[in-house]
Specification:
The protein is mostly helical. 59% of the residues lie in helices and 0% in strands.
């Protein structure tokens, strides 16, 4: 990857998840964020962030049982 050769710091998996959920990465990763948002594959990267954000909700739908408990999941996330 060209960004790695140019000395751009790429976040690790946990930091990337934090970034995917809207967290800031700080000045150390500014060049990587610029690359992430402006490279020619930005659309694929955006889709991967969207998939990472929505995966827990889709996995929760696969759990067996009554669907009425799904009402309380947003409360668990907020608190």
């Amino acid at each position: 990857m060209a960004a790695q050769r140019a000395g751009v710091h790429r976040p690790g998996p946990l930091r990337w998840l934090y970034y995917a959920y809207g967290g800031g990465l700080g000045p150390k990763y500014a060049q990587w964020v610029l690359h992430d948002l402006t490279c020619r594959t930005w659309f694929i990267r955006h889709l991967s962030r969207t998939l990472a954000q929505s995966a827990p909700a889709f996995l929760a739908l696969l759990l067996p049982g009554d669907m009425s408990w799904l009402i309380f999941i947003p409360l668990l996330v907020v608190f």
